[in-house]
Design goal:
single chain; about 725 residues; alpha+beta; N-terminal domain of TfIIb; Rossmann fold; 5-stranded antiparallel sheet; 12 helices; disordered N terminus
């Protein structure tokens, strides 16, 4: 009997242990899940699309993108306003979610499906369609009063009013004349081509004449037989587009045009209206991109009035932020410039051009958010370049940091400036929503996100700072597997971008990495990334070292990272791989060819292979024109180094890539053939542009990882 009792107890205990193990057992992360669900099911919860209601202490957000919620500073317990299904019934609409959502006033909001525009009153519980635009319309922009929409169709610009009046702003039969779209291939901070005046009485727009720009062929395989679609692609040193700014008067229905004051292919950038609607400001950058002037034009006539100031630099100038007007009753404005080495804020007197430097930070300001009661709120990296914080500066130059918790902060400020919604993440915090006072004091915790990966077997990222050859700090990220064993030897995948305007390592959730990199670590790899000189958010001296020599200091810094990896006892220094896309594809190929004894295998996606094939606006900024920098272009060209390839290299390209055209890869492959290299492979993604998205991205990442795992072994001598 005792034996039976003992056996029962033992069995029960073992069962309890097994059940406990089962409860705590982690799920294996699948590649498809990592690729497709990082920003869906595995995204940390937050107060999505947070907005303050105008002139109140109330705010709204979307729960699951389908339910509009409302709360207040006084009572943070949110109440449901309406679901998207209920809204569709009220409006007789077919909205998928609250797209284009914006409060008109405390009781009414706008939404749009992209073609139809609606308003809804939450008190009266009714609403309706206010206007519609054609199905083929693109680039739609509401006027400030939300009563009319400007949009483009093909190469022309139109307006539809709330009375469904259709106004033709431009009617150019010549398809080379394009109005209302972004120009300069979206460089210089240009993202739009349509600019309503503050009261909606006039409409400014970009226009480009592409008559002399080369027609570049893109094969469309979706037709039978296949057809060729031509895009305008100005390559470095070749003919470029000629810009103008049009100003359309809605009352007279007439348009005047402003052309560059210098060469016809100068860049017209950072357009803004003065609050009184009398003037437009335009930063004109010369083709060489070493000088710009901020010019004032009369809105009625297009007449040049004056130049407020100019900036010059023997490397490059790159204005990226339009004038910001902190007071709607004054034409004085704030300008962002990195002329002192870091992006800072300057207050400009419109009448006489007097300049007062408001901030003298030795770090990078990234964006102006709002102005309230003489204070300018702006975001900046702060003393740690991997973070993003909120600052405020007044017109006397009193500068104060508002957010203090380490991490990456995204904020929204109430209209009266009393409250700040702070949504932040860090290495260890998936997400928190806080309600702050305007001094940064935490008033309420609104939401703390659970770790969406807590049930998965996943490793962590270690952040470390190395020293570059010039003594500057190099931030690195090393992702290890969850079952990391320091006594083992691990192969390494170096993921690289390395180019301007991008920063790979941030103090944010997952340390800025893609979730598939953590999946790769679970396959027994260490995944390493380093932000080299030339990358973003470190100031002009750091970024401009690549000038006229792309792929030189970047490689030097990446090799500093390699030296560090080889010093680690758990790294298999004989099994190093490298992968990157776009500039990262250029860097991957450059490392494989210019450091041929270091890497066994590389996978380069959409790589620049010769800078003379890249676009004017970006390429000439960093490399100058080909005829002005023959040695720099030759040294940076992968064609020059193709004969050095030792490891296995997979080149990938989207056949419809209109950013880095396929000529780059095809020219490099032709050279590999000429030098009799068999250790190179090529794979295309039909009809994809400058990367691979959607379900096909799973195939891409599987292709990349399969190739690396198969070939990451020392090259046989």
């Amino acid at each position: 009997m005792k034996h039976i009792v003992f056996l029962f107890i033992l069995t029960t205990s073992l069962l309890s242990i097994a059940q406990g193990q089962k409860k705590t057992e982690k799920k294996e992360l699948q590649l498809e899940t990592a690729v497709l669900q990082q920003y869906q099911a595995l995204r940390p919860k937050n107060l999505s699309f947070f907005q303050w209601l105008p002139e109140t202490d109330c705010y709204s957000y979307l729960d699951g993108y389908t339910t509009l919620m409302k709360a207040s500073v006084r009572d943070s317990k949110a109440k449901k306003i309406i679901t998207i299904q209920e809204l569709n019934k009220k409006l007789d609409a077919s909205l998928y979610w609250f797209s284009g959502f914006q409060w008109k006033d405390v009781n009414e909001f706008w939404v749009t499906d992209g073609k139809n525009y609606y308003t809804y009153n939450i008190v009266e519980e009714k609403g309706g369609k206010i206007l519609s635009i054609p199905e083929t319309a693109e680039n739609a922009v509401f006027d400030p009063n939300k009563e009319q929409v400007a949009y483009t169709m093909q190469n022309n610009l139109f307006i539809t009013t709330k009375n469904q009046e259709n106004i033709i702003v431009t009617d150019f039969k010549d398809k080379n004349i394009v109005s209302g779209q972004a120009i300069a291939r979206s460089e210089f901070g240009i993202t739009d081509g349509i600019f309503w005046s503050p009261k909606g009485n006039k409409l400014a727009f970009y226009q480009k004449d592409e008559s002399e720009v080369h027609d570049y062929p893109i094969l469309d395989i979706n037709t039978t037989p296949g057809t060729v679609r031509f895009i305008k692609y100005p390559m470095a040193g070749e003919k470029s587009e000629k810009p103008r700014v049009g100003i359309f008067d809605l009352k007279s229905k007439k348009t005047i045009y402003i052309s560059p004051r210098g060469a016809s292919d100068d860049y017209l950038t950072n357009l803004s209206w003065t609050p009184d609607e009398k003037f437009v400001l335009i930063a004109e950058v010369n083709r060489d991109q070493n000088k710009y002037t901020l010019d004032v034009y009369e809105a009625v006539t297009g007449k040049y009035i004056k130049t407020l100031f100019e900036e010059a630099n023997d490397k490059w100038v790159e204005p990226e932020h339009a004038a910001f007007f902190p007071n709607e009753k004054s034409n004085n404005f704030v300008w962002m410039s990195e002329k002192d080495g870091f992006m800072n804020l300057y207050y400009i007197d419109f009448s006489d051009g007097t300049i007062k430097q408001l901030t003298k930070n030795k770090f990078v300001a990234t964006n102006i958010i709002k102005a309230i009661d003489g204070k300018i709120y702006y975001s900046a990296t702060g003393e740690t370049p991997t973070e993003s914080h909120l600052y405020a500066v007044d017109l006397r130059g009193n500068n104060k940091k508002i957010t203090r918790i380490p991490g990456t902060h995204h904020v929204s400020i109430s209209d009266d400036g009393k409250y700040i919604h702070d949504n932040f993440t860090s290495y260890d915090v998936p997400g928190k929503s806080l309600l702050l006072s305007n001094t940064g004091k935490v008033k309420k915790h609104l939401l703390e996100a659970d770790n969406p990966l807590k049930d998965y077997q996943i490793g962590k990222a270690d952040i470390k700072v190395l020293k570059a050859k010039d003594g500057s700090d190099l931030y690195t990220r090393l992702i290890r597997p969850s079952n990391f064993d320091p006594n083992k030897k691990y192969p390494v995948l170096i993921y690289v971008y390395g180019g301007p305007h991008a920063q790979m390592i941030t103090n944010s959730w997952l340390a800025g990495a893609s979730l598939w990199m953590y999946w790769m670590a679970e396959q027994g790899y260490l995944v390493f990334t380093l932000d080299n000189r030339g990358s973003a958010n470190r100031g002009f001296a750091w970024e401009s070292q690549i000038h006229r020599q792309c792929g030189t200091v970047e490689i030097e810094d990446q090799m500093t990272g390699v030296e560090y990896l080889k010093s680690l006892p758990y790294v298999d220094k004989e099994r190093l791989a490298v992968h990157g896309w776009s500039y990262g594809g250029f860097m991957t190929s450059s490392l494989m060819l210019r450091q041929p004894d270091v890497f066994n295998v590389g996978v380069a996606g959409g790589p620049v292979t010769d800078w003379k094939f890249y676009e004017v606006m970006y390429g000439e900024r960093y490399m100058d024109k080909p005829e002005e920098n023959l040695k720099g272009y030759e040294k940076a060209s992968l064609i020059t180094h193709a004969h050095k390839l030792k490891g296995k290299l997979l080149l990938i390209h989207g056949t419809a890539d209109d950013v880095v055209v396929m000529q780059h890869n095809l020219t490099l492959i032709k050279r590999f053939i000429e030098v009799k290299k068999q250790n190179v492979d090529f794979f295309v993604y039909p009809m994809h542009k400058h990367n691979v998205h959607g379900m096909d991205r799973v195939h891409l990442i599987q292709k990349v990882t399969n190739y690396i795992m198969k070939n990451n072994y020392p090259v046989k001598k």
